[in-house]
């Protein structure tokens, strides 16, 4: 199982001396001491409204937002990413979770055909620091950039300032980088995704979440991910989980992203919370077995099936 | 009759320790110690200009804005919601009312066919706190978001910051969540309304006001409201009253919204102020009998007819 | 002649305790101790450029901007309303005038057919307070909102904040409320004007200036003004004077606006400054005889004709 | 030769008591003790890019930006107007020049047919005050408003605040007022220019620079300038010099602008810097002979021809 | 070899007295004591995404962003220009490099045919000063202006303020000046480039980076560069390197830009980092031999070929 010491955390130089220990604390918490990131994405209640939480094929457990906190608490995750208000309403009852405050969000109502996407910063960083001061275990911040949107400039500027401010206070930052807009012909192009990953690096992010590139005859998705993993340099690359698929497929993809593609973790939402609590908890452990424990796909599947247990 | 103790108020964790008692005070006042919300909506003089206050079928009492304060004072309400300036001009004479300062408003002159709706923040939160410092009984703030508007991002950002700032000073927040704009095909869709309610939760609101969903053969409006009541999680859901209907229908709908749909209150405007003072006062009591007292529809109708009395 | 005592001034509750006396001072000055407002509108040099000041039918006196200050000084007015810079250039020589600083202005060059109207805030409120600190007799502020414009939101927000800030420092506020824009079919509709007046109340204005509604077979302009006078509640309603007409007509309209329509004053510009100094001075007295002195039309005409004198 | 005493400087009342002497210092410097303004316009390197500085009919001296400072230093001017950065790069070597910091500028690349003009504020006023603190002889600020542009509101707001801030620190302000945009049919209309001049007064400018109106059978350009000179009231009116013409014509026009049209000075750019250093220096003296010395056209031409000398 | 003393550094007068030594330190570092600038442009990972770093004809070394820092460390450069976040992630391991923080950036996804270019400021200047406070060797800032874009005003305003703020803290500023947008017919016009260079001067930049103009029968590119070198006055002109060409051609062009065109340096990106580390290091030395050492083309080629060595 991968493991890093506090000395091995590479602290960006925009973290001031008096915040180095705080940054290392947060980095170690977020990566559970492994340098790998298992991110539980709980920001879709704005991003996708209720589409991901209610309906055919979705566990009835998911209709209640507290479901996500139960999974986060009983399962094994690195961080639970959600909007500030969502965290504020539940965190007092789930103090053990590592929270990543998602700073911007938009709904999916206005489609790209009507207008290019812009996801606004919903509150200033101080409000996230205030949560921390009130005792919430906030380890980092998240922000989505739709690269290639006509509003790219606004998101780039908000993210650029946010990372500087976050590092100045010892917080870790994850950027969601999604090429999208009328100017973007192919959102899943490996080369474009690599460009997005490099942009996250230039903005100073600690981790970048991208969609896995589209595989084709010239290489699998994981093969093609290598370009992005290189381009992101010292910014750790993780892949979004996407829509719900069967667990074996899901875990195999994740394994390949890490061991072939060079990813250092994963960011999973629907695949977790759309399941019943028990199943979702087991899946967090299976994912973490691969991401944090370097286990094989078979062993992880066994964890998911309740045949093995994974703990840190 | 439902009743909660101060210990039962679930204080969001973005309320700092030194403001917990203030928040609990405000929450107890707004809900009259019941955890339920009876909101008297008095923000339509901007939203609908004089259309709701003067004309056929509207009591002549309603032409004078003070009518609303008289109802608020003589009737039984949780909060009276109005713009800052309106409150500033009358509150000195009606100190006993619990005020909710509506922070944004727009007129209905520009239709959605001309431009998507944006309702601007009209003053900063400090101006509401100043009212409180001047002795006005301000217990909370209100803000409207038109979800799906091309200006959604501006309203989401204003509301997101507002809630953080309000909680930081111990104020309760109600969000008016209305899907509206060229991208919104069906404003009354239960699924969409549930998404709007979930969005309010993610922003951290204490209560969310939605329009009741449209019922159809698959279920009544109240049945369909359940999805939204679940999606809003710890954010209490209340339904808007809509245009004036006969009192029995109105009270029955309200009863079902609470006892079938999972609402924790109501938000009523026109149904109250368009009536004469005496009738309006009796209707506040009938509404509160259901909302705050868990009375039956029949008993509430008797209150409205002056055959019974409801008091706290 | 109407007269109010300092105790009778209804101070809005957003005026803090330590500014109550200042507000009462300003209110008494602006209304000359009567509770009525005679406003001399001197903001047209931006609004109408030189069209109102030079040309056929306009006294040559009006070509020199100082003409307005001479009228304000020698005549009887409540306040002289003008932009900050105009006041700054002349007020040292006319210290006895009560000034109302007009905070926003636009030219009429871009027509509504090209773009909806937006009148920008030209300077922050501190600059008006600085004038006061420098010894200028500033009693209040003015702001124009074009209701129904696509830029309504910007003006509403600027005005909403302005009123809060003005009251916080003891200044009186007058809103110019003009429905205008592609969405506005009939700017002179009595019902729409009433909506505009109600909006001014909700923003917390002390006085609202509206155009007189269009009369028709169902009622005179003054009759139809009643709806707006009711809708404006505790915000005093005054009518704009409009383009220059003969003095008898003008004074009769004014009388009816007050005694039939419920107005509490007037706001007159062109009808005054387009006349020679002597004639303009007499007209201020005739207007004030009606507005501030409750004199009859006949007596006011006699004042205008120099047959009687009106003084406070 | 006109001359004013310090007591004769009419200080606007927005200049605070503690800054009166500073304002008078700056006013006396800018007008060289005459109350008249000779402004050397050196802001065209942005406004017209290199078109005015290099090419046929332009002295080779003009290719080097330092040429303007040499003229300003060896000639006789009231103020040299240029952007902050230009002044910052040369002023240490030319400390004797009175500088007017041009606060906004745009290039001419985007034509009005593509978009209406907006000239942005390039730096805050503090940066100009910092130059003064660093020992640069900054006496005032300049700002251009394109009246009638769809961006009029932004420029009006920037200028309105700028003048208040400048006066608060004792600086003199010159507004460049140019009607321009799709809404402006005739930029050279005398009536429109008068409106622009009146607008500058209402914003509180000390001087306003306008283009000379177009003359026709009803009157010469200078005749028609009278309306603007009246409309600008206590704001001194000066005319832009325009493109390079022969010196006799140029000086005659200037003489008439002052002695017929009521201007109190001139603002000249290309007519100066497009000439060789020697010729340009002589032309500054010829212009100043008329503007500051009230000399005749013939005597001024003699100065330009080197037959007479003008000094202060 | 050109060499300047600290006394010969011409410090702009917007650098305050207490920051003069810091500015001179930075200027001497950036120009390696020569007054000439060799800028290694490492901002393309945002500007061109991964196009410049991965693919046919590009060394595999370039896929890893650290490649640029290795070149900067082992080669001879004046400054390495990159975004704040990129520097923050690597500078701790490369403390000897002189860093220029590129303040704005955009991707190339939205083409000019879709929308005119705007490159947003990504973080405030304080974040760059914080890097310096944390021990990073930050000597200056960079900013790109697309002159003639419909967003020119935003970039001009950001750059105008930035330069003032940078000089106030002793930092050197380089402006990238690129005419681009629907209004720009010929980006490579010598006359237009000269206008852009003059604009950089007026904003107060220390150096301006332009594209070399297009040569034609009337003169070579270097000949035509003279106009810009004159127009930029005291702002040093450097040319962008453009896409990768063979080294002899590249070095000849550079030599001519300096010795014919009047440039004082170069700004090179792709020509360096697209080569293998060894080759790139040798090319930095060859470039510096010309730029900083005034060597001949032949000698510089020998350096590139490893036949001679160049050191400072």
Which parts of chain A are unreliable, with pLDDT below 50 for 5 consecutive residues or more? none
Largest sheet, strands/sense/barrel of chain A: 8 strands, parallel, barrel
Structural class of chain A: alpha/beta
Mean pLDDT of chain A: 97
Shape of chain A: globular
- Element order, helices and strands of chain A? HEHHEHEHEHEHEHEHEHHH
- The strand line-up of the biggest sheet of chain A is 1-2-3-4-5-6-7-8
Outline of the structure:
The structure is a homopentamer of 312-residue chains. With 312 residues, chain A is an alpha/beta fold.
Describe the structure.
- The structure is a homopentamer of 312-residue chains.
- By secondary structure, chain A is of the alpha/beta class.
- Helix content of chain A is 39%, strand content 14%.
- The first copy, chain A, is built from 12 helices and 8 strands.
- Chain A has helices spanning 20-30, 44-47, 66-74, 84-90, 125-133, 152-168, 190-203, 221-231, 247-259, 270-273, 277-291, 297-304, and strands at residues 37-41, 79-83, 99-102, 138-147, 172-179, 207-210, 236-240, 265-268.
- Chain A has an 8-stranded parallel β-barrel with strand order 1-2-3-4-5-6-7-8, surrounded by 7 helices.
- The radius of gyration of chain A is 18 Å and the shape is globular.
- The N and C termini of chain A lie close together (9 Å).
- The mean pLDDT of chain A is 97.
- Chains A and B meet through α4 and α5 of A and α6, α7 and α8 of B.
């Amino acid at each position: 199982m991968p493991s890093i010491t506090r000395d091995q955390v590479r602290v960006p130089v925009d973290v001031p001396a008096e915040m180095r220990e705080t940054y290392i604390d947060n980095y170690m918490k977020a990566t559970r001491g492994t340098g790998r990131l298992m991110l539980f994405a709980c920001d879709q209640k704005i991003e996708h409204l209720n589409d991901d939480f209610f309906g055919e094929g979705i566990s009835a457990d998911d209709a209640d937002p507290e479901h996500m906190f139960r999974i986060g608490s009983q399962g094994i995750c690195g961080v639970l990413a959600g909007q500030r208000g969502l965290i504020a309403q539940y965190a007092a009852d789930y103090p053990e979770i590592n929270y990543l405050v998602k700073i911007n969000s938009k709904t999916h109502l206005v489609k790209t055909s009507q207008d290019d996407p812009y996801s606004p910063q919903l509150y200033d960083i101080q409000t996230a620091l205030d949560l921390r001061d009130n005792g919430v275990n906030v380890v980092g911040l998240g922000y989505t950039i739709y690269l290639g949107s006509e509003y790219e400039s606004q998101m780039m500027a908000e993210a650029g300032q946010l990372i500087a401010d976050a590092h100045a206070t010892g917080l870790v930052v994850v950027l969601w980088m999604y090429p999208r807009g009328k100017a973007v012909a192919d959102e899943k192009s490996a080369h474009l995704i690599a460009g997005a990953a490099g942009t996250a690096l230039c903005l100073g992010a600690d981790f970048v979440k991208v969609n896995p590139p589209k595989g084709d005859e010239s290489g699998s998705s994981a093969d093609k991910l290598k370009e992005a993993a290189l381009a992101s340099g010292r910014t750790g690359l993780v892949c979004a989980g996407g829509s719900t698929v069967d667990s074996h497929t899901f875990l195999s993809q994740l394994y390949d992203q890490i061991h072939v593609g060079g990813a250092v973790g994963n960011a999973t939402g629907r695949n977790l919370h759309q399941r019943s609590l028990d199943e979702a908890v087991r899946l967090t452990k299976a994912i973490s077995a691969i991401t944090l424990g370097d286990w094989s796909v078979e062993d992880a599947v066994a964890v998911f099936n309740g045949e093995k247990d994974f703990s840190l």
